[in-house]
Amino acid sequence: MTTLQRTVGAEVTRVEGREKVTGAALYAYEYPVPDALYAWAVQSTIPRGRVRAVDTVGALSLPGVVAVLDSRNVARLRPTDTPELAVLQSPEVAYRGQIVAAVVADTFETARQAAAAVRVEYDVDDHDAELMDGDPRIFVPETVNGGYPGHTETGDVDAALDAAPVVLDATYTTPPEHTATMEPHATIAVWDGDTLTLYNGDQGPWMTAARVAELFGLPEGAVRIVADHTGGGFGSKAIPRPPTVLAALAARAVGRPVKVAATRQQMFTMVSYRTPTLQRIRLGAERDGRLTAIWHDALQQSSTLTPYCEQTVTCTRVMYAARHRRTTHRLAQLDVPTPSWMRAPGEAPGMFALESAMDELAVALGMDPIDLRVANEPSVDPGTGHPFSSRNLVACLREGAARFGWADRDPAPGARREGHWLLGTGVAACNYPALTWPSTATARAEPGGGFTVRIAAADIGTGARTALTQVAADELGVGIDRVTLDIGRSAYGQAPWAGGSMGLSSWGWAVSKACRALTKRLDEVSGTIPPGGLEERADTAEDVEARRAFSRHAYGAQFAEVRVDAVTGQVRVDRLLGMFAAGRVINPRTAGSQLRGGMCMGLSMALHESLETDPRFGDFANHDLATYHIAANADVRDVQAHWLEENDDELNPMGSKGIGELGIVGTAAAIANAVYHATGVRVRDLPITVERVRAGLSAGLPAGFSAGPSAR
What angle in degrees, to the nearest 10, is found between the helix axes of 347-365 and 667-679? Predict the structure, then answer.
């Protein structure tokens, strides 16, 4: 074959772009499935108890209603370690908004009308939906999300803190947050005997198929997921959620295809959210800034169904050198919906606390915040002792500072003013693990001269389809116009989800290996392709297992410039600049989009996003996009993402690290630190609302004000 100019590293436009802008791209709810019915969920109106009776007379009397389902008349599912998926399997109610019944009808509108006519009677139990430190039921889980230990400790932290010349002791909080994906959760379920096809908005088709098959007691391969396009996920579509299970149950019950689409309001209880956190950080340091002790404790919540605990303090285990270290997760199981993954789970709230604390320590020491971070750069992973495969955090801090103009900064809070606006700048570091999981892929040479590559990947808007096409084209030595990449089908074999920033590094390895095997075989047959084509399959399980023990992470530095109205407390972010080290960038166009998108999400986290828990019911009072505020165009002014050229041979054949979540980590802390620099008001509770800023400003508080204990 003739080797063409390599496309990896080139700004290739999205290969599916035309389909999307013309509307030809099909999303889950849009597949033309004939004879489909519509299901609408009836949700619990109580926070805890059990269903005593379901009156279906009014619903069944409406023309077009086919069935009303509840725990008495649906198929029995297998026991599951994810009780949230045991839809309609019991009359027990664990949280307000749980599915307790469903109506199936011939139109969407009829199903909705009939669901409103279903009358449910309950036996109500006492409930507890408030996250409070000191609750005697709080416990330390053995492991947390990702399999990390719930607690780690080295050295004598208490003694080191007692002996440290400078100690920071501060508490930070983050509220519940919602993924708010553009495409609501939607599924079309079609049974053919004991084979189930699910057209599903999905981040991991193969993994979803395996989970659903296990739930319904079906053999491997009996569940087929079709997810050609998915309109965002941010973690919420990485595993099946109740709407998907409801669609499958309803279709089984009525013997026809059934469509389920959650409304925006339903999504706020049905499909997970980010847990709130209450984090206490204690830092002990010498007067030259070297950390001697780090203690990071994080309290969070889950439901009584599932003890999901986010890996909030794991970022602290890898970031900075200190001989004495203690990190602890604590969990309260309440009568609330189950939280789960949301973009950069653990790292996003955890790094807000850590990087805010580092800024406070720098102020207490009279040090530049960048110099403090550089002074505590570790030589090996502080948590595991493993060498870093690559770690260019210091380079990100230095290069980012140069691009941002950090050297011109007056370190004194409140030193810059333009009329009634106070101006300030802040910095925060960020990191995210560079994960890779086993995957399979096939590469096929077609008789007509083209190539087809198949892998059960998912493109949730990240540009993964395009980047994988580039990887395949380069390995095959052809132009991308000769490569057809098929993704989004569970039938293509084992592959991880588009989550944990592991997608491209995992899928790309399998695609690379399959294409290399096909190229070798084509060389053996002198390029002669039989009428049936030639195909090679690759599995990277042994390759991933054989990797050496390294600490693999992506790093970055986030810089923010803000202006704060001295009268109202309004915060505007004038400029965000991120400098990242994330291995080899496959496609600068899509990579830049992902990093900037993550930074915008971090801005939204900093200034807007907060679910307000109603303690009477345990659900969220602001359960729509009119009241749950996210950043809009007017909030995002100047957002720049840059990256270093980083070579890392200990990752995968492409040398790439995940970037989807890296951009959000650190952004909120950089903005909070900039607000302090502008005003002298330290806001430790997200989001940074006008009320919180104004409270400090109107009190005439001096620079260094904070709502909690200050540095010693």
Answer: 30
CB 585 within 8 A of CB 647: no
As to burial, measured by CB atoms within 10 angstroms (0-12 exposed, 13-18 middle, 19+ buried), residue 31 is: middle
Chain center to CA of 60: 41
Alpha-carbon distance values, 438 to 460, 543, 551 (Å): 20, 8, 18
In angstroms, rounded to a whole number, what is the distance separating the alpha carbons of residues 677 and 91? 54
Averaged over successive runs of 10 residues, the pLDDT of the chain (712 residues) comes to 76 96 97 98 98 98 98 97 96 98 98 98 97 95 98 98 98 97 97 98 98 97 97 96 98 98 96 97 98 98 97 98 98 97 97 98 98 98 97 98 97 95 98 98 96 98 97 97 98 97 97 98 94 96 98 98 96 98 97 97 98 94 96 94 97 96 98 98 97 87 38 52
Q: What are phi and psi of 539, to 5 degrees?
A: -135, 125
Pairing of strands 258-261, 223-226: unpaired
Q: Kindly tell me the burial class for residue 398, based on how many C-beta atoms sit within 10 Å of its own C-beta (0-12, 13-18, 19 or more).
A: middle
Q: Percentage helix, strand, coil, to 5, in the chain?
A: 30, 25, 45
Q: Hey, which bits of 30-176 come out as E strands? A: 37-43, 49-55, 65-69, 92-93, 99-105, 119-124, 151-154, 166-174
Q: Is 658 exposed, middle or buried (0-12, 13-18, 19+ CB in 10 A)?
A: buried
Q: What is the pairing mode between strands 65-69 and 553-565? A: unpaired
* Six-digit token string for 155: 């050295």
Do residues 620 and 613 lie in contact, with contact meaning Cβ atoms separated by under 8 Å? Answer: yes
495 contacts 440 by C-beta, under 8 angstroms: yes
3-state secondary structure 655-690: CECCCCCCCCCCHHHHHHHHHHHHHCEECCECCCCH
The verdict on whether omega for the bond into residue 413 sits within 30 degrees of 0, i.e. cis, is: no
What span, in angstroms and rounded, lies between the C-alpha atoms of 649 and 253?
53
Give CA 605 to chain center in angstroms. Answer: 13
**Token match 């009477």: residue?**
616
Annotated catalytic residue within 177, 355, 475, 661: 661
Contact 103, 42 (CB under 8 A): yes
Let me know: does 96 contact 617? Beta carbons within 8 Å: yes
- Residue 194 gets which letter from DSSP? T
Mapping DSSP to helix (H, G, I), strand (E, B) and coil, where does residue 199 land? Answer: strand
SS3 state at 169: strand
Chain position carrying tokens 């260094």: 704
Concerning whether 130 is annotated as a catalytic residue, the answer is no
What is the Cα–Cα distance from 483 to 450, expressed in whole angstroms? 6
Two tokens, residue 592: 């830049």
Comparing CA positions, the residue from 563, 168, 665, 173 lying closest to residue 372 is 168
Question: What does the buried/exposed string (b/e) look like for 269-281 if buried means 16 or more CB atoms within 10 Å of the residue's CB?
Answer: bbbbbbbbbbbbb
Beta bridge partners of 259: 38, 188
pLDDT for residue 710: 42
- Three-class secondary structure of residue 606 per DSSP: helix
Question: Both tokens of residue 492?
Answer: 């293509």
> How many residues are recorded in the chain?
712
> Do the beta carbons of residue 570 and residue 675 sit within 8 Å?
no
Cα–Cα distance for residue pair 387/399, rounded to 1 Å: 23
In SS3 terms, 109-135 reads as HHHHHHHHHCEEEEEECCCCCCCCCCC
Q: Which of 540, 509, 519 has the alpha carbon at shortest distance from 445?
A: 519
Inter-CA distances, 504 with 436, 500, 540, 665, Å:
9, 11, 13, 19
Q: Say if CB 28 and CB 199 are below 8 A apart.
A: yes
DSSP state of 139: B
For the record, the structure tokens of 217 come out as 């007691």
